[in-house]
Amino acid sequence: MKKVVYVDNNATTKVADEVFEAMKPFLTEEYGNPSSMHTFGGKIAKYIEEAREKVAELLGAEDPKEIIFTSCGTESDNTAIMSTLRAYPEKRHIITTKVEHSAVLNVCKYLESIGYRVTYLGVDSQGLLDLNELKSAIDKDTALITVMYANNETGVIFPIEEIAEIARQRGIVFHTDAVQAVGKIPIKLTSLPVDLLSLSGHKLHAPKGVGALYIRKGTRFSPFMIGGHQEQGRRGGTENVAGIVGLGVACQLAKKFIEEENTRVRSLRDKLEKAILEKIPNTRINGHPQLRLPNTTNIGFEFIEGEAILLMLDEFGIAASSGSACTSGSLTPSHVLRAMGVPFTFVQGSIRFSLSRYNTEEDIDYIIDKLPPIISRLREISPYGKTGQR
Amino acid sequence: MWFYSEKVKELFKNPKNVGEIENPDAVGEVGNIICGDALRLTLRIDKKTDKILDAKFQTFGCASAIASSSALTEMIKGLTIDEAAKITNKDIAEYLGGLPEEKMHCSVMGMEALEAAIANYRGAPIKKETVGEEKIVCKCFSVTDKKIIRAIKENNLKTVEEVTNYTKAGGGCGKCKPEIEKLLKEFWEKEATKGAYPKEAPPKKKLTNLQRISLIQETLEREIRPQLKKDGGDIELVDVEVNKVYVRLLGSCLGCPATGLTLKSFVESKLKEFVDEDIIVEEVKE
């Protein structure tokens, strides 16, 4: 097989070997339904509860019962938002940000179309929020504040503790889409007054098709997936047993490796970033240099287009992603970079490298070796490449 | 991920004719960095024969934009200006073994750069200036109504989404989508009327009874009754039996000595024109 250097871990991650091993029995001989009365099925419930404990432990949640399993991050986000709105039917206002993932953003747009009022908070050039803007957006009608923990494109981390505190003081439900943060930075929900928190399995080395939603005790909740009594009546549908068990093990591993994520992985990211900025002129980091996930860097290459960069990297087996228009399937570049006001000469040529604990020093050296000639080649082709102006 | 043809991949990886001709005989520039793609085409032309001796390009854009530009330069080398002027975006896409629908605008950009270069050779300034009569419909990508209508016409586009794929118009904030919809509607309505009064009548489709009857009613309402009413008369459809149309004349038509003439040379001939050559009109009297 062709060499692959995978640095697109904010898109999805490799399933950890330990995770796969733990899942196997539930895809083969242990196929029982945990809701069954017989022992063959019923005994499976125990493994689900073990997984729940592991998720709760990674999040620092007080009680495993505060966790429900879902099918993905998007379902968790949808559940959190819809459940809260149903719980407060008289309130018709939502506060979110312009840089949310589409799992939140498009739900908000839909809600606007059916009569809700939505405030989209802006960000500054480093991708940071203005908390005064948040405070002044709150009114009597506000049902929910939903702000992502860390941004998927830039890795910028929002001050969730402060936002949660603002929401708590005003008695407003606060949800955070923590899909990118869980497993990358420590989270301790016993001391962080978040009411609802979404996470996704495949972003932390569990498989695709499983996610979880944290629901703080005392938070009004009504199910999004209506069906059977599973998950204490909070999420209908037969459990994805193997996926849930895998997510549990993945959370256990994430807890074990979180230190490494913030030391070794961070230093690899820093090395890559530093080398690119040094070797390639007319480049910039998109996002706050410090308040960022340890694994993510988003770099803008001026005067060239991201899809072309990605395809050339792909020739060398390097898998990254871009916020350029051409890669998004739409014609406009990333809403996150636009909200940050990234200069238009850079925005189309922005590339995200997102690492994981499986990346090595060799991977980084390989990218540092291959990238500069690609950039200069594309700048040769570009009419803006030489002079920068025309 | 896009599914590019082998030809697109090849021309992206190893583009031909990259660069700039020094002291070119013609320059064509389209797009800009804000739009996400831009192309600068320079040509060397033999002024005696109008033959394109060399063509080079510089492109800011994705793989298909680079491949389209490279294809264009390959296609036009050796052609005369008049021959090159006939190249359309479809030809470029065909040369590339097809482009994803969403990427058709890359081939349109190639065609536009070529047109701009030809215009430049014939004396126009390098940057295509917007003609006074054109109107910018899509502000995000600066797409004019003229460009949209042309894309609709040349590529037989029917939906806003298709227009976006070919011109990028509507792909930004999306506010101009109703306007694109309007342009589409206007264009196709105009085309439809052209079809209704063709110079050479196309073979008429056989009508079902229901279609025939409603077409007769429509024609009566639109073409016949207004005329009769002018003279204080009126007409009523009584029945239709294959090609026989039974009508009753009303108002001042009753007892008018010209009734026979009215029926045959006006009513029947209108129905023959708009519905069916074989129609015979019969008057019903109480």
Quickly give the CATH architecture of the largest domain in chain B. Answer: Alpha-Beta Complex
Number of helices of chain B: 10
Give the helices and strands of chain A as they follow along the chain: EHHHEHEHEHEHEEEHHEEHEEHHHEH
Number of domains of chain A: 2
Q: Would you kindly provide a written description of the structure presented here, covering whatever features stand out?
A:
The complex is a heterodimer of chains A (390) and B (286). Chain A has helices at residues 17-27, 39-42, 44-59, 73-87, 102-113, 131-137, 160-169, 230-233, 241-279, 306-315, 325-328, 335-339, 344-347, 361-381, and strands at 5-6, 67-70, 93-97, 117-121, 142-146, 173-177, 196-200, 211-215, 283-285, 296-301, 318-319, 321-322, 350-354. With 390 residues, chain A is of the alpha/beta class. Chain A has two domains: 5-11 and 258-381, Aspartate Aminotransferase, domain 1, CATH 3.90.1150.10; 17-254, Type I PLP-dependent aspartate aminotransferase-like (Major domain) (Aspartate Aminotransferase, domain 2, 3-Layer(aba) Sandwich), CATH 3.40.640.10. In chain A, the strands form three sheets. Chain A has a seven-stranded mixed β-sheet with strand order 2-8-7-6-5-3-4, with helices on both faces. In chain A, strands 9-10-13-12 form a four-stranded antiparallel β-sheet. A two-stranded parallel sheet of chain A has the order 1-11. Chain B is α+β, with helices and mostly antiparallel strands. Chain B has three domains: 6-121, Sufe protein. Chain: A (Alpha-Beta Complex); 136-196, BFD-like [2Fe-2S]-binding domain (Arc Repressor Mutant, subunit A), CATH 1.10.10.1100; 209-283, Fe-S cluster assembly (FSCA) (GMP Synthetase, Chain A, domain 3), CATH 3.30.300.130. In chain B, the strands form three sheets. In chain B, strands 1-2-3 form a three-stranded antiparallel β-sheet. Chain B has a three-stranded mixed β-sheet with strand order 6-7-8, with helices on one face. A two-stranded antiparallel ribbon of chain B has the order 4-5. In chain B, strand 1 and strand 2 (37-46) form a beta hairpin. The interface between A and B is medium-sized, with 28 and 29 residues.
